[in-house]
Design brief:
86 residues; alpha+beta; Alpha-Beta Plaits; two-stranded antiparallel sheet; 4 strands; 24% helix; 27% strand
């Protein structure tokens, strides 16, 4: 799945984590340059065979979040929410 998504426009990285309380529970964090590119990549017909076997086992929770603040290399950056854009 990661190799397929990494070829898509706007892909930045994927992180995978495991819950220390439940070894069967994983979190997959995908970073994209925009929500639009993420949605296009995940819903693309050409990617469905690789993406949906993983996504179909996901818990029914919100799955996309936008970055509002990032602290990296000693600097903080605020990002404008797409909800505030017209």
């Amino acid at each position: 799945m990661v190799a397929v998504l990494a070829k898509e426009p706007g892909f930045i990285e994927v992180l995978v984590g495991r819950s220390p309380d439940d070894a069967q529970t994983l979190v997959i964090v995908q970073k994209w340059d925009s929500i639009g590119n993420a949605r296009r990549a995940l819903n693309s017909g050409k990617n469905r065979m690789d993406v949906w076997p993983v996504m179909s086992s996901a818990q029914d929770e919100p799955t996309m979040f936008e970055t509002l603040f990032e602290f990296k290399d000693g600097f903080g950056t605020d990002f404008e929410s797409v909800l505030n854009q017209n």
